[in-house]
Design brief:
It contains ten helices and no strands. The chain has 216 residues and is mostly helical. The longest helix has 26 residues, at 154-179. The model is unreliable at 1-16 (pLDDT under 50).
Length: 216
């Protein structure tokens, strides 16, 4: 009778199936690459996503349920990673500098463009301000530190900051093209305006209103 020898250095079968997490991540990566290439969510072909990920198209519906949910999960995962990196690097940064840094983020994050695509695709569940409570909590700390006057409406401020940031990220290059200047030059000029606005948040509402009356 032959003795069966065990392999002393067993290796993982290279053809073993992926785990669910690996399959999800591959689908997300392929979907984002296709959207970046084609530019519109409506043109996202789930068969192409499945083929690119090397899985059956049914896996997309099984894991995500829809094209929108696939993109929604992709956006949230990427945004969470960005926020984690920024939070660790900005613990002792002032309100003005922290907000200005948001405008210097790598353009290829594409978070604002992807959320806009979902809205245009009819998704009314898109979250335009992820981590809203965390953001408001940080603004309250800015009030304590004197960077923002206590009379300002922090929720409205958070919405205004989000709207300005997202709109600028989406239209940054078209704005520069319209002015016939380089996008980096536009960044520098816009930062001066934004810094001036953010610094004005140190003043109470009465001071700002008084300035408005004098102008009139």
């Amino acid at each position: 009778m032959k003795k069966i020898l065990k392999n002393p250095n067993p290796q993982k079968n290279p053809t073993s199936p992926r785990s669910r997490a690996e399959t999800e991540q591959k689908l997300i990566t392929v979907a984002l690459d296709l959207i970046r290439e084609k530019g519109v969510l409506a043109g996202l072909n789930l068969r192409e996503v499945a083929d690119g990920a090397g899985v059956n198209r049914g896996n997309i519906y099984h894991y995500f349920g829809s094209r929108q949910e696939l993109l929604r999960v992709a956006i949230n995962r990427r945004f969470k990673a960005i926020v984690s990196t920024l939070t660790a690097a900005r613990q002792h940064t002032s309100f003005v500098e922290r907000r200005l840094e948001n405008f210097r983020l790598a353009e290829d994050s594409n978070d604002s463009k992807l959320r806009a695509l979902l809205v245009l695709d009819g998704d009314d569940t898109v979250d335009p301000i992820p981590y809203l409570e965390e953001g408001l909590s940080r603004l309250r700390q800015d009030v304590i530190e004197g960077d923002i006057h206590k009379e300002h409406d922090l929720e409205a401020l958070q919405v205004a900051l989000s709207a300005l940031l997202r709109g600028y990220r989406i239209f940054r290059k078209p704005y520069a093209n319209r002015l016939k200047i380089d996008a980096d030059e536009l960044d520098a000029r816009v930062h001066v305006i934004i810094r001036t606005w953010l610094k004005s948040m140190e003043k109470p509402l009465e001071s700002n209103q008084g300035d408005d009356k004098q102008e009139k």
